[in-house]
Every structure is written in structure tokens, then in C-alpha cells.
Amino acid sequence: MTFNTLEDAAKFYKNYAKAASFSTRVRSTNKKRNVIKNQLITCSREGKWKLKISPTEKTNPSAGLNCPARIYIHILKDDGVWIISKVMLHHSHSCCPNQAEMLKQHRKLSMSVRRTIENNEKAGIRPSKTYQSFVAAAGGYRDLNFIEKDVRNYITREVRNILELDDAKEFGKYLLRMKEKNQNFFFELELEDDQSIQLAFWSDARSRAACEYFGDVISFDTTYNTNRYNLVCGSFVRVNHHGQSTLLGCALMKNEDIQSFIWLFQCWLRCMGGKAPKGILTDQCASMQRAIEACMPTTIHCWCIWHIMKKILGKINGFKGHIKIEQERSHVV
What's this model's pTM, rounded to 2 decimal places? Predict the structure, then answer.
């Protein structure tokens, strides 16, 4: 068989795989001068491999069964067309045509299904409820060519990525609403040119009141990162008279440079009436240290013992007697 393009040949074999109830994958592609010359497409169960998760821990374990089914496609130099030169149709595993549409490669969401998912997500309907509505409309699970995981993946990869462009504006509106509810709520927000968050700081009325009583020594920590937006999350914490940690303020930062920390500590001082703490505990960050010296020169800056102890193991592992040193250190602590 001949095809005008490599994509047409791969699409033909994919349609055949759906009819025969198996999925495919590109095993190898050979190029010459950055131009594809031939390609090997095999059954997805080709090769000898096994998941690290044991069958007892995974409800649907899968493994490579060294399946020989494959096609070999190459281009003819003279005609410029693609030809299937080698074919192997036999499989080392059983195929179930009734379940072909539920294989990952063949599952798909139609345009109408995608539009319904987008509308339900905007309305705040949970993905599980959205999927159940499709099941009810189709008359059963077997009449759908997608599963609930496909709905969740589409929301994560497509819908929420589109909405992220407006998330910074919505975050600013939320802070304004909090300010309207309580005038003692404090916040400052700076956005990039693309309307993404660069710097943000906020503290509610309860936190500001707690700082007046327990703000003589505070701890500032930036060891947390947000997963979706890749922003550093910082927190100001103080221990109250009951020995409990009390949150005094939060911050989001795009960069951990000196100017960002200076902006943040200046916001902290404005929020707390210009009263600098007597002492502050932080990580061993040079940028943070220089910002504290510039904004709060009278504040005693100390390194947090938790960060120090966490880094000691990596520092002493190079010594021959690191085990003995670690034992002596544990007795000291």
C-alpha cells in the first residue's frame, strides 16, 4: 500500500488497530539530514517490560508481552510516496473488539462534550457530576467512548489553563472584597505586563492584632512553592503565649531576589504600623539577609535551626567519620 504522507500511513494503521482492538506506538524513526526516511510502528504491548507497582497494589496492571504485531513504513526515493513494506498481523495477546474504544489511544472527546465540560466547569459543577450526566444521557458506561479520567484531564490541561490568564485579576478582586468586609484587612499587589502576579502580600485584621501582642520575634519562611503558577509562597509566623504558631501574613513572589524581598519587608512594615520586630528567623538566604539589613537595620537576624539541621547531613557526608559526628550532634540537640 502507498500513501501520500507519513501521517496518512500512521492514521491508517491506527484505524486498523481500533478495528482490531489494540493500540499502537511509534517504536523508531530514522532520519537522514533531519528528514524522516522510515518509521516502525508496533503494538503498544511490544517489548518485555513490567510496571514497578505490583499487581496486588494496582487494580489494572499492564506489562509488555513481546507482541510482534507491527508495520514498517518507508519513503520511495523516486516517487516520493510512502509505502508499507513489512507487516506482521499476529499478536501475542488476545484482543477484545468490544472494548477497543476504551483503549487510551482511541478514547476522545467530541466538540459538544468539550463545550459541555467547559460550561459545567465555569458553573462550578464537579467533574464527577459532569461525567455522570454524560453516562445518564448515553444510557450507560459502555455507550461512551471516554472515561471520567479523560474529563478531569481535559479540565486540567485545557479549561483551567485558559482561565489562568484571568486568575490574577480574580485574585485581586478577592482581596478587594476582603477589604470591603473589614477595613483592617491589608494587602498590596503588583502584576507583570502580562497581568500575571509578580508580588503579593496580605494580612487580615486578626493577624495584625496578633502582631501587636506577639510580634517581637517573628519567623519568615519561603520553602513552599505553588504547583500550578510556580510562585514562591512566604509566611510570617509568630508563637503566641500558648506556644501555638500564629500566622501574621502571607506573600506570593515570582522571584527571590533582593528587590522582591525589599518590597515585601516594606509592605510588612506599612502593614504593622512601621514597627519592626526585635528579631527575625529566616533561612540562610543572602538576598533575604541584605533586604532585612536595608529595611529593618535594628532587627536582629538569626538563621532558623530547622534549616541548619536539615543542611548539616549534606555537609558532613563527605567526612569519613560523619556517622560519629551525627551521633554526637544528636546528643547535643
Answer: 0.49
